[in-house]
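Anyone up for a design puzzle?
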C-alpha cells in the first residue's frame, strides 16, 4: 500500500472499453450491518455485468467486500458509503465510513496500521492484478475514513 498508481497500462496502448463502462459511476449508502459486505458483493457484480466489465467481477467483488467488512469492523453498525466508478481505464471502489477522529497523530497512525494489517486479503488480490489500494482519514472535524481499491483492466 503506497498510494501510487502501479501497473496501469500506458495511455497510448489501444484498449477496447465497452461504451457502457464509461457510464459506471454509482454511490450507494449502506446501513452498516454485518450483512453489508454481501450486499456490496451483489451490487458490484450486478453493476459490472451491466456495464460490460464482467471480467473484473471476481477481484472487484472481493475488494468491495473486504473494504466494507473492514469499515464495519472499525465502525460497527454505522452507515457507510460505497462508490463504484470506471475512470481512466480502471475501476475505482471507495468506501467512506464514520470512524471517529483521533486525538493525536500517533493514535491516528496506529489505527491506520491496524486497519492495514486487517486488509491482507485485499492487498494480495489487488496487487495480483496490478492494482493498488489504500486508506486515509477523511479530513473533517467529525472524522471518517476513506478506503479504496484501484483495479486496472
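Challenge accepted. My sequence:
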Amino acid at each position: 500500500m503506497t498510494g501510487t498508481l502501479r501497473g496501469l497500462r500506458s495511455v497510448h496502448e489501444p484498449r477496447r472499453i465497452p461504451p457502457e463502462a464509461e457510464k459506471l459511476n454509482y454511490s450507494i449508502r449502506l446501513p452498516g450491518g454485518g450483512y453489508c459486505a454481501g450486499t456490496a458483493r451483489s451490487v458490484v457484480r450486478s453493476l459490472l455485468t451491466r456495464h460490460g466489465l464482467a471480467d473484473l467481477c471476481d477481484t472487484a467483488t472481493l475488494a468491495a467486500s473486504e473494504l466494507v467488512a473492514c469499515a464495519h469492523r472499525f465502525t460497527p453498525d454505522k452507515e457507510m458509503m460505497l462508490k463504484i466508478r470506471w475512470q481512466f481505464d480502471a475501476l475505482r471502489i471507495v468506501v467512506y465510513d464514520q470512524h471517529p477522529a483521533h486525538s493525536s497523530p500517533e493514535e491516528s497512525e496506529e489505527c491506520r496500521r491496524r486497519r492495514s494489517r486487517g486488509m491482507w486479503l485485499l492487498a494480495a488480490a489487488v496487487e495480483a492484478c496490478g492494482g493498488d489500494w489504500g486508506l486515509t482519514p477523511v479530513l473533517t472535524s467529525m472524522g471518517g475514513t476513506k478506503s479504496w481499491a484501484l483495479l486496472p483492466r
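A detail worth pointing out: The CA atoms of residues 25 and 85 lie 4 Å apart.
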